[in-house]
Amino acid sequence: MNKKETHCLLCAQLLQSEPSWKTLLTKQFPPCICKKCASRFEHAPSPTALYQYNDAMKDYLHQYKFLQDVALAKVFRQELQDQFNHEKSPIIPIPMHPLKQKERTFSHMEELLKAAKIPYIQLLEKTTAETQSSKNREERLQTASLFQLLPSVTVAYKEYVLFDDIQTTGTTLRHATEILLQAGAKNVRSFTLING
């Protein structure tokens, strides 16, 4: 059973939520942010992303990733559960470089999936600690390969789904896709939390 949040994880206001038959029968996660905070996030028109990048999302990413507030992995757990619950293809979160993960203390992509109780596998490792956010569009497009397969990994001839937090130029997802296809994947789709 999920621990019920009593206060919004983003603004700390008391949550005013009554259990409904829908949440009880469908085993939905209880809300962890208030309706006001939820309304600040803008849904993406794209079928390959949940949200658009805006000021609310910028604040969320800063708090979650850079201030290491791992509890915020829960914020989008219901939306991710709804998106991936019936996914048949293995889901691969975009990995962090080991040095970055040690610095941040957790893998923000894996924590999002864990909070939503979505199974995933890892076939890739990042080859550079340099972040794409530190580069302009041209530099991102000219970046050398960011990933390699993990040692002793075999990529089966089937479809995979890459999951990343944000897509701006698509460089990260393109590089990961190329590595998987070269290693024998049949097809690679991608899905992001945010469309940048």
TrEMBL record:
CDD domains referenced in this protein's UniProt entry, alphabetically: PRTases_typeI
Classification via Gene3D superfamilies: 3.40.50.2020
Coiled-coil annotated residue ranges, if any: none
SUPFAM superfamilies: PRTase-like
Alphabetical list of InterPro entries matching this protein: ComF/GntX_DNA_util-trans, PRTase-like, PRTase_dom
Superkingdom of source: Bacteria
Family of this protein: Belongs to the ComF/GntX family.
Annotated protein name in UniProt: Competence protein ComFC
Organism ancestry: Bacteria, Bacillati, Bacillota, Bacilli, Bacillales
